[in-house]
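In line with agreed milestones, work has continued on tokenised descriptions of protein folds. One protein thus recorded appears below exactly as we store it:

>
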Amino acid sequence: MAGRGRPSERSYAPFTDDHLKRLVKIARADQEGLFERNPHLGVYRKRLMLVALCQGGALHHVDCQRSASKKNGVKDLDVYSFYAADPNVRWPYRRHGVEDFGPSEFGFHPNRRAGFVGRHVDLMGRALPVDPEANPVDAVRSWLATGKDGTPWHLRKKAVVGLYPAKYRGKVIWDANVDQ
């Protein structure tokens, strides 16, 4: 079964639309679990702007779209959910979930978590200081370009690829190799 094969530090298999859809399902289930465990965060259910693949996985997706050269590869999958900040409820910015991507062409990392069969999916979120009606792509790009803390600094060094809403799936939101 794919995903149960030999371990590898990185996978160079290209992303498919099914992979991107699977990441959305994983992220949305993680969000719902977070809101159920923390009812005070429920206000963010209606403030979700964008779910995106970030870091090395996103860079690999961009590389594969550009050419047959697959130089970055996938070590793990970093998925961020971006929300419009609520002035009355702080987002837990240090919150970090981890889920199993499951069997796939990406195989698994040699240091996988016990019980996982696929790559780790790291799930994070950020509340951006924007109106809920703001353009999500513009909001994320602005945060990446101007954010002073460590997270936007790290994310802007690689790439960000939209996952959800569906109209942004596969769209390059940020590419460190291209002037924004």
